[in-house]
Specification:
Layout (H helix, E strand, L loop, with lengths): L1 E5 L6 E5 L1 E4 L2 E4 L4 H6 L8 E7 L5 E7 L7 E7 L1 E8 L10 E7 L5 E4 L3 E7 L4 E7 L8 E3 L21 H4 L12
Antiparallel strand pairs: 1-2, 2-10, 3-4, 5-12, 6-11, 6-13, 7-10, 7-12, 8-9, 8-11
Length: about 180
């Protein structure tokens, strides 16, 4: 069984798989393509990715890939917790430039589906946070793009004061108004 809950932007949803537990621990089906298809959710998943962020308040994003390597992402947390964000980059969408967020955690056992046409990023809320996600297209360095995490036009309300731990790539990412969008 899979619970699907819409977030504030159409097509961005929270997924919560059912856990079966006893005194030994638990078992869960964390991915089932047929259940996603039955729920009307897009995706033909081709690659799995995993990241470890050692420091609390590490921010990864806002990332996306341009077509023909645009990616939908199915994200979950294996250890720790994150503040996960999806930004609508679809130029003709009524929610263009808006963002939806969800706290994902190993304890909550929830996931987020971020469709193609969205930038994605997350902020770790605990040390040693591990994130696992599926994507619908392989990584392509030539199509890899980023938007600044603190772009005032987007206005994500990250739960942090000051600057997070950032990669060089994310530190110098352009703002949305300087990006030639193709969605």
């Amino acid at each position: 069984m899979l619970t699907v809950s819409p977030l504030s932007i159409a097509d961005v949803v929270e997924l919560t798989p059912r856990k079966f537990g006893d005194n030994r621990g638990f078992f869960a089906e964390t991915f089932n393509q047929q259940r996603l298809t039955d729920a009307g959710l897009p995706g033909s998943w081709v690659q799995d990715n995993q990241s470890l962020s050692r420091e609390k308040f590490t921010l990864r994003g806002l990332h996306y890939q341009e077509p023909p390597f645009a990616q939908a992402k199915l994200v979950r947390v294996l250890r720790g917790s994150i503040f996960d964000v999806a930004v609508d980059l679809r130029k003709t969408s009524p929610t263009f430039g808006q963002w939806a967020s969800l706290v994902l955690s190993a304890d909550a056992f929830n996931q987020i589906l971020v469709p193609e046409g969205f930038a994605h990023g997350f902020l770790t809320l605990e040390e040693n946070t591990e994130v696992f996600y599926k994507v619908t297209a392989p990584y392509s360095p030539q199509h890899d793009r980023a938007i600044r995490w603190d772009d005032p036009q987007i206005g994500v309300q990250w739960p942090i004061e000051g600057e997070p731990n950032l990669s060089d790539k994310d530190r110098i990412a352009p703002v949305l108004s300087d990006v030639a969008l193709v969605f």
